[in-house]
Amino acid sequence: MRLSWGASVAALAASASAASLADVCTVSNVRSALPSNGTLLGIDLIPSAVTAAAVYNASAGMGSTETYTYCNVTVTYTHTGKDDSVVIKYAFPSPSDFKKRFYVAGGGGFSLSSDATGGLEYGAVGGATSAGYDAFDQSYDEVVLYGNGTINWDATYMFAYQALGEMTKIGKAITPKFYGMSSASKIYTYYEGCSDGGREGMSQVQRYGEEYDGAITGAPAFRFGQQQVHHVFPSEVEQTLDYYPPPCELAKIVNATIAACDPLDGRTDGVISRTDLCKLNFNLSSIVGEKYYCAAETSTSLGFGFSKRAEGSTTSYQPAQSGKVTAMGVKVAQTIYDGLHNSKGERAYLSWQIGSELSDAETTWNNNTRKWELSIPSTGGEYVTKFVQLLNIHNLSDLNNVTYDTLVDWMNTGMVRYMDSLQTTLPDLTPFQSSGGKLLHYHGESDPSIPAASSVHYWQAVRSVMYPHLSSQASLEKLADWYQFYLVPGAAHCGTNSLQPGPYPEDNMQTMINWVENGVKPSRLNATVSSGTYKGETQMLCQWPTRPHWSSNSSFECVNDKASIDSWTYSFPAFKIPVY
Ligand SMILES: *[C@@H]1O[C@H](CO)[C@@H](O)[C@H](O)[C@H]1NC(C)=O
Ligand SMILES: *[C@@H]1O[C@H](CO)[C@@H](O)[C@H](O)[C@H]1NC(C)=O
Ligand SMILES: *[C@@H]1O[C@H](CO)[C@@H](O)[C@H](O)[C@H]1NC(C)=O
Ligand SMILES: *[C@@H]1O[C@H](CO)[C@@H](O)[C@H](O)[C@H]1NC(C)=O
Ligand SMILES: *[C@@H]1O[C@H](CO)[C@@H](O)[C@H](O)[C@H]1NC(C)=O
Ligand SMILES: *[C@@H]1O[C@H](CO)[C@@H](O)[C@H](O)[C@H]1NC(C)=O
Ligand SMILES: *[C@@H]1O[C@H](CO)[C@@H](O)[C@H](O)[C@H]1NC(C)=O
Ligand SMILES: *[C@@H]1O[C@H](CO)[C@@H](O)[C@H](O)[C@H]1NC(C)=O
Ligand SMILES: *[C@@H]1O[C@H](CO)[C@@H](O)[C@H](O)[C@H]1NC(C)=O
Ligand SMILES: *[C@@H]1O[C@H](CO)[C@@H](O)[C@H](O)[C@H]1NC(C)=O
Ligand SMILES: *[C@@H]1O[C@H](CO)[C@@H](O)[C@H](O)[C@H]1NC(C)=O
Question: Which family does it belong to (predicted)?
Answer without folding.
Answer: Belongs to the tannase family.
